[in-house]
Structure prediction request, 503 residues.
Amino acid sequence: MPETNKTSISNLKDNVGAEVTLQGWLYRGRKSGKVLFLVVRDGTGLCQCVVEKGAIPDEVFEELKRLGAESSLTVTGTVRVEERSVGGFELAVTGAKIVSPAIDYPITPKAHGVDFLLKHRHLHLRSQRQWCIGKIRHTVIDAIRRFFNDNGFTLTDTPILTAMVGEDKQSLFEVDYFGTPIHLTQTGQLHVEAAAMSYGKVYCFGPTFRAEKSKTRRHLTEFWMVEPEVAYIDLDGLLELAENFVSFIVAQVLEQNKSQLETLSVDIDALEKIKPPFYRLTYSEAVEILTGEKTKEFMAGELTELQSRKAEIENRISELEEQQKGQLKQWQKDKNAAELSELQNELTEVDTKIQNNPKHAELAAEFRWGKDLGGSDETIISRMHDKPIFVTHYPKETKAFYMKADRKNEKVVLNFDLLAPKGFGEIIGGSAREDDFDLLAARIEAQGLEAEDYQWYLDLRRYGSVPHGGFGLGVERTVAWITGEKHIRQCIAFPRMMDKVYI
RNA sequence: UCCCCGAUAGCUCAAUUGGUAGAGCGAGCGGCUGUUAACCGCUAGGUCGUAGGUUCGAGUCCUACUCGGGGAGCCA
Prediction:
């Protein structure tokens, strides 16, 4: 094989007309007599490579014709613009070398179930959809760091092994630490508060562990969370910080991952709306909305919409089923079958929503001030809006001990949740921290926490206490929201779920 | 922990009131010089999740268990 320019698929646009060599894997192959169409992936994208019989030695042509999916290979050829090809470029192959042939690659171009794909996660990462999500996750994480680094924040790494309970004792993973029980961190917040008193503006960013027995599309037992903490800030300041932060992340993804968003068929217009200011609601206002006419009408409207969607789906299903009975080309049958199975899935989902709608409407209507906002309540608020919504000033009793009581209304704390729009739900939780020594000491005692363990935390109020606060943003939830992925397990390379760790 | 649903070929799914286990994809062989989840022909591929029960007869009905999915609570 001639020595030519090694390049990547992402750089093909600068090599039109040149002979280059790609190093990658066979994503998919098609053959048509004396022409082979090999779609090659190299980690930077996909490229169709066209092999004409006679353009390369016959034995290489025969080898390529039989090459299994995900075989590794290098291909050399001339780059040309070709509209019909994925990515817009094509390689007219002049030479190829098989690096390592793959036989019986388990993941095929047809549909697979969730369990199967999770069991083959190490291979599934090579698929288009996963690849796109991973690229977007990378941008999200890069944007997180850049935002804080460019705005005067100092990174402080907080411990993963800790004796502190930040949120809730029930949800801790216990580890044996030289004979003493200790647990995996569920938040870096308490430690990062100490750092904020040194640097002013800080953030920690790392894995977080929660042993919550939650089997839902919004939960992982190990996830990544970034937690900024700022000295001399009030609740309004925090909201402003959070909306600028989230808007920056979305803007970065829009700038750097357009093609991935398109591949994932994300609603890009909706993302372009994500700019400050976000909506602001107090908890009490949220309660009013939930128990009021507006929600009643909204839920009724949703139900009508769901029912007409259901009718639509059912019509289409019977239409397709009728077609399937007739004489059709195999490819048409395949296509119909695929559409049918998608419709069946959607139908099940719509049915569940129809069933849940009255229950959720009832829960919302019966909501009483003082309870924590339930998942369905958050979803309703979130579905009513097209931009993220802050919900602030929750009842003190439902919230963590360190949240600052509102001096104007001692029943509530100066906290906030940020709900992503269109039904996605919570991606940020944060608060101003109690900075009064006596009030904080009383809260620690009231919650039955070991006072001794929290002496250092109280020291932060003994020596130069200032108003301060921060929040935590869940990386996987943010990625899921931006990519439109239903389940956050798709948004981390190797998800850890309750009772289930595949590899 | 509670509620709902599911388990049939490597994968995704069919199998009528209980009556001879099927299709597509994938794999193998052959055909086709512009395919896009290509197409056409042929071939191989099964302990119907496990254990019991009902029945002349069970993939189908009953019971228990195992595994999985979705939802609730809780949360990022």
Observations:
- The two ends of chain A are 39 Å apart (CA to CA).
